[in-house]
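Researcher: Let's try something more involved. This one mixes different molecule types, so please make sure each is placed in the same coordinate frame as the others.
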Amino acid sequence: MLLRAASGALAAAGVGPGSRLCCALSGGVDSIVLLDLLHALAPSLGFSLQAAHVHHGLSAHADAWARACEARCAQLKVPFALFRVEVPCGDSEGLEAAARRVRHAVLDGVECDWLVFGHHQDDQAETILFRLLRGSGVRGAAAMAAFEPPRAARPGRLRPLLGCRRAAIEAWARQRGLAWVEDESNAALDFSRNHLRHRVLPVIGERFPAAVSTLARAAEHFREASELLDQLAAQDQAACGGRTLRRDLLLALPDARVANLLRWLARRNGLRAPARARLDEALRQMRAVAASHPLRVELGDMACCVYRGQVWLDSDAADCLQPRRWAGEESLPWGAGSIDFRPAVGEGVARAALDGAGSVMLAMCRPGLRMRLGGGRPRRSFRKLCQEAGVPAWMRERLPVLWIDGEPAWIGGLGVAAEFACAPAGPGVVPEWRVRGP
Ligand SMILES: Nc1ncnc2c1ncn2[C@@H]1O[C@H](COP(=O)(O)OP(=O)(O)OP(=O)(O)O)[C@@H](O)[C@H]1O
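Model: All components are placed in one shared frame. Result:
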């Protein structure tokens, strides 16, 4: 039964000949059984198997767990990797959460297609209950996925035992005579999760004997709903103009859809989704101020920026705006956006000034920058130019400046310096700044 469930879950994720699996081995009964099952399935499904243990150094027994994992892998002739990590103390989310974050980060670096975890149905029920009690939304209530496909350089995640009960896993371990280690923290009732496991779920089970599988089923419904919300966010993003959103189109959407879209954008960029109250505040301000008013609202790991009719999420510290040499490229990256250089006639920077220059650099503003924007106009300081053009203070340090032999020739959002401007009907290059969210 357990073997069939695991094999079905692997097949559903497309695991087959050539797939490289790594069993995340804690040494506890769940992952010891998982390793046993994967080892049994590898020849018939044709995947290669390795195992990895993360040594957090937090428990007095940590060395013994690592040795037990290594010994079991040696018995099974499964290649084994041990990772020693340091868990930072004083994490705002607590030691357990910090350990989990460090563990996942190190496991993500394992050379494989799939990391395989021993989570089971009882874990799933505890997770959904725990998250609901913390007021989580649809996404959090979706709890854990049976599989998460590989992303960028990160291996995918598989949880082949997610449909299996803890009791069935323990029964398998006993029947096969497997040895495992007990994590003493699992018995400690002071952790909320353990409290749910040992105190709350048994009481619920007295009245609702199928509570664990029912809660796991509810998680699946939430997962479906969460996927639909993600699809809606992708559609809304496209309808609002793509990577940078058009303010007018975005604000034509109801609040709940704007919030859904901003959360989705944050997650897609590896940032923590902003708290509900911050999102509400961003929306309130966006709706309250005039369309032409620039705005920057902090949203935790990022900020929501509104400028010249565009809205984007900004996680870009100004110090990531690296100076770059321009040597005729069509486009250069600038923060999360780009500067595109468009050949033109009678506008932009004079081609001759660019071609004859010793160095053309794209960089931030430097102290003391002064520039004359038009023939008859006075030379002005950078601050004055920004004030006149209504560039908000938070935007100023991000403005790209094109420096020709150390002189400012163009400032993004402001214009071309009179000395470098292209003559009427002469060949020119127009730099175009494309602001984009992360
Ligand atoms: N120290 C470890 N080294 C390698 N894998 C581990 C380790 N600890 C846990 N795992 C893997 O994670 C699974 C879940 O473990 P556990 O329930 O202790 O973690 P969790 O914190 O509840 O979950 P998660 O780490 O996924 O958030 C285990 O079955 C195992 O596959």
